[in-house]
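User: Hi! I have a protein structure encoded as tokens and I'd like to know what sequence might fold into it. I'm fairly new to this, so please keep things simple.
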């Protein structure tokens, strides 16, 4: 199972790297989608496992390449975690942070974090970007992480899983100078890349039931205020409970 999953992830990354650049779809995209007819159950307990956010932070060089920064990444991971815990307290649903897993369970979760990223890249390109929608998936959110994800529900005792991915590459002084020079020459050059994905997965079926994806996220994830802004943006339009049945 693990070998098949990792092969699928690697193949999907290769296809996406060639065929899809999310930044190219920044304009004219929708930011969230929910599977048709899905609402959280109107009654009864709901246990949503919140997996530690997958965080990558670095600096964009003058040439536009990202240089990973371990210190920034560690700071952002801590600040986003605190912001997530703060926002969780205001939600009516039972959101439970799943501690970091170790050994085989940790590797299993890492595989599904990577798979979530790949699937959400595809959703962004082929569902949230209207001009590039797949003919068979124009009007619904019909993507899945597969039934194997049920193991995460068993490990944490949850009904749904909340995955979060953020990628930030802050423009260096050289990149910012190039952006100014490009503007003077009439050439558009971006400085900085800020991508965020959040998704809710049914841990019984593996179906992606809600997703929020944006390649122009706000908030500096390296400080408390910016991290809280980022988490708030990522959880916009989060599914609510359905209407209670009539008496």
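Assistant: Happy to help. Inverse folding works backwards from shape to sequence: for each of the 247 positions I chose a residue that suits the local structure. Here it is:
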């Amino acid at each position: 199972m693990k070998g098949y999953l990792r092969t699928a992830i690697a193949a999907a990354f290769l296809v996406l790297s060639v065929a899809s650049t999310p930044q190219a779809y920044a304009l004219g995209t929708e930011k969230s989608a929910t599977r048709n007819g899905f609402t959280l159950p109107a009654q009864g307990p709901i246990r949503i496992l919140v997996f530690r956010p997958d965080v990558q932070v670095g600096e964009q060089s003058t040439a536009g390449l990202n240089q990973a920064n371990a210190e920034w990444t560690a700071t952002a991971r801590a600040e986003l975690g605190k912001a997530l815990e703060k926002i969780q307290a205001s939600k009516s649903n039972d959101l439970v942070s799943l501690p970091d897993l170790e050994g085989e369970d940790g590797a299993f979760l890492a595989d599904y974090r990577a798979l979530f990223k790949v699937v959400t890249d595809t959703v962004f390109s082929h569902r949230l970007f209207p001009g590039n929608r797949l003919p068979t998936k124009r009007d619904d959110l019909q993507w899945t992480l597969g039934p194997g994800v049920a193991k995460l529900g068993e490990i944490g005792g949850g009904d749904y899983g909340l995955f979060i991915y953020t990628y930030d590459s802050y423009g260096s002084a050289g990149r910012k100078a190039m952006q100014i020079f490009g503007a003077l020459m009439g050439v558009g050059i971006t400085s900085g890349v800020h991508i965020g994905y959040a998704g809710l997965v049914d841990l019984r079926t593996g179906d992606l039931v809600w997703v929020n994806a944006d390649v122009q996220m706000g908030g500096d994830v390296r400080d408390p205020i910016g991290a809280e802004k980022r988490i708030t943006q990522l959880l916009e339009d989060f599914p609510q409970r359905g209407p209670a049945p009539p008496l």
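A useful reference point when you look it over: Strands lie at 32-34, 47-50, 54-60, 66-68, 94-97, 160-171, 193-202, 208-214. Feel free to ask if any position seems puzzling.
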